[in-house]
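Check out a protein:
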Amino acid sequence: MRRAVILITGFALLALVNLSIYKREALLARGRIVLLELAPVDPRSLMQGDYMALRFRVGSELETRRRENLSDGNLILAVGAKGIAAYRRIDDGTPLAADELRMRFRVREGNVKFATNAFFFEEGTGEAYTMARYGEFRVDDKGDAILTHLCDAAAQRISPR
């Protein structure tokens, strides 16, 4: 009996992990591409390697407009040329217009964060990312997002090699 419980628990955990992986892979494959303007800083982490800490202009706008009672939620973005997004409003349940996109955000220590607050890169390639001006995300219909690339001022993906 004990062995059966362990096996069932193991299979259940594997199923949950694989479901999570499948959802992320589907988001990467079918998510809408949107660019958020960056406000980067460039710290180094001995334990984690090289990375760029990220802040996004729309997050700063949200913090400024809605300072009080700001908590986790969804933001509605207006998506313009080249997929570049701008703050439109907090999601209030109103149907989205053709140029709008829903994106989930979290509030941590008073700061708005989207998907991640850091972009990790291979050691020695940090110089290439100093020209980063946008974070490229894949976003699904529910507003879940994954940061996939950093882009330059022309909205072109940065490749360090």
Remarks:
- The mean pLDDT is 85.
- DSSP finds two helices and ten strands in the chain.
